[in-house]
Design brief:
Blueprint lengths: L7 H22 L2 H5 L4 H13 L11 H18 L6 H33 L4 H14 L1 H11 L3 H27 L7 H11 L3 H9 L6 H16 L1 H18 L13 H14 L5 H24 L12 H27 L1
């Protein structure tokens, strides 16, 4: 047990060690150039963690490993629950049925596409395929983090999925505004906002795109963010459905003798509850802002801890399969998402 009398000191030292790295990641993310790129402290945290894991990892006292693991598992789930303070049901209602339908269609199709393509065409393992699909279909690194405990995946697989989110999300962040300014996208401000929110990976990247559009309206920015947050809240039902699927899949293949225990990610249920509580607006906005800042730091700790468990030697054998899989999902999000957005807006 990490907090047993024997292990308590080492665990606390490990948690503090991760927190120091996360604080450094947070400070780096505040540099103007980094902020302009829309790179979140979560991404910086995992990069720092990976760098440490492959350089100075052997210098870490073994007694601290429990604290690092605690940060990557327990603190992660706690942070995902409080991620609900970033969303209200009123925000989702504002964007209307168009935004909801685009979010639902793009999330479900992208997750299924990424999982199938990764496993069947590029021969990746199930966990890496699903983690990559979760990151592309929902909300980037945070979605990968939330899916990891449901799959009980290894740290290096999480790192692979996050790296794909960073790569293709960054490409989208620069490509979308360029294409829109060139007149390639035949969309009005609200349509383009829905399209951006429904297809780009990270929340920060979604915020950055309208800011890069010449003479972008506030309607475009608001539609993009609200649709994106609609996708974020859908992570909870997605994880519950995934848990049910994994249980029945294990039962079908004889994964457990004497029946299969249904795995329900309760932190996802609590996440919805927290979003519902936030919708009541019982807490002043300045306090909610502070909660979100603390939550971002906790998520950064979790990412950093996962990075610390990522050794490059474990990547051998994967080759370019993750890049190909993420590329297929990116193409679907950008091209398929465009036509789906136009179709949904025309219907509703």
């Amino acid at each position: 047990m990490p907090f047993s009398p024997k292990n308590r000191k080492g665990t606390l030292n490990g948690v503090l060690f991760v927190a120091i790295f996360a604080a450094a990641a947070t400070m780096i993310s505040e540099i103007e150039f980094i902020r302009a790129l829309g790179i979140s402290p979560l991404v910086i945290g995992i990069v720092i963690g990976i760098f440490y894991a492959n350089t100075l990892h052997n210098n870490t006292p073994k007694e601290w490993s429990g604290g690092i693991t605690f940060s990557g598992k327990k603190i992660l789930r706690f942070a995902i629950v409080f991620y609900g303070f970033r969303i209200t049901f009123q925000q989702i209602a504002e964007v209307g049925i168009e935004g909801f339908m685009v979010s639902l269609i793009m999330l479900s199709t992208t997750f299924i596409l990424g999982t199938l393509v990764g496993q069947r065409f590029f021969k990746m393992d199930r966990d890496t395929s699903m983690l990559s699909a979760a990151g592309a279909s929902v909300c980037g690194a945070a979605a990968v983090l939330a899916t990891e405990p449901v799959l009980k995946a290894e740290e290096h697989k999480t790192a692979i999925a996050v790296s794909m989110v960073v790569l293709f999300g960054t490409i989208a962040m620069f490509l979308y505004p360029a294409l829109y300014n060139m007149g390639i996208f035949d969309m009005n401000a609200k349509e383009f906002g829905i399209y951006v929110g429904g297809t780009i990976h990270e929340v920060a990247q979604v915020v950055a795109v309208p800011a890069s559009i010449l003479n972008a309206s506030q309607e475009m920015a608001n539609s993009a963010v609200i649709v994106k947050m609609t996708r974020v809240i859908m992570i909870a039902p997605m994880l519950i459905i995934l848990g049910i699927y994994l249980s029945y899949s294990s039962k079908k293949t004889g994964g457990e003798a004497g029946g299969v225990k249904l795995v329900i990610p309760w932190f996802a249920v609590y996440f919805i509850g927290m979003a519902g509580f936030n919708s009541l607006q019982l807490i002043p906005q300045n306090i909610v802002d502070i909660i979100n800042q603390i939550d971002t730091f906790l998520l950064t700790m979790a990412m950093t801890a996962l990075g610390m468990g990522t050794i490059f030697a474990k990547f051998k054998g994967l080759g370019l399969a993750p890049v190909y899989t993420a590329g297929v999902m990116f193409a679907w999000l950008m091209i398929g998402g465009y036509f789906i957005t136009k179709w949904v807006v025309a219907i509703f």
